[in-house]
Specification:
The chain is α+β, with helices and mostly antiparallel strands and 206 residues long. 37% of the residues lie in helices and 21% in strands.
Length: 206
Amino acid sequence: MNTRIALLAAACTLALAACGDKSPATPDTTAAATAPTEAVETAPADTAAPAEAPAAVDAAAPAPAAAASGSDKPAAVVADCATEIEGTDAMQFNVGSIVVPASCTEFKITLKHTGTMPVAAMGHNVVITKAADMQAVAAEGMGAGAAAAYVKADDPRVIAHTSLIGGGETTSVSFAVSKIKDGGPYEFFCSFPGHSALMKGTIAVE
């Protein structure tokens, strides 16, 4: 009898142990353990999408650079081998380039000062040189003074220049087109001290 009871108790113990191994807690633990893994795996996919946005910005970046590469001012209007440009009290020319027709033998530039300030305070002129000579000619012209229109006397680098004028005044200069056909590029600028940094443009024969 005791033997039967012992065997029965042993069988119950084994049955309970087997049921314990099949406890529903195991699947829940596995599901809980895998859930964060799935979340971690999908997270990079969500964060990867915004990373493509800078690429779109970079692709558009060359547009402003292209705009900054040239003047935003219009070309001068040319008729009958002549043009008129304006200088202002805001230290600006109204044009950024002058295109001289190749059919012209002489060309005339008329400068109109549309401001009101006197020549001593905001004088303007037009000086034409090679682009490579512009800074040196402007710097040396400062030493020549206002009486010389801030242009060094007999400077061989100067192709042509007008007189220095104040608000409401007009001046002009004519020169042989052959002087700017070769050896360029050439520029026109104002040699009044400090003006050439802003008041300048290109001049070419086409």
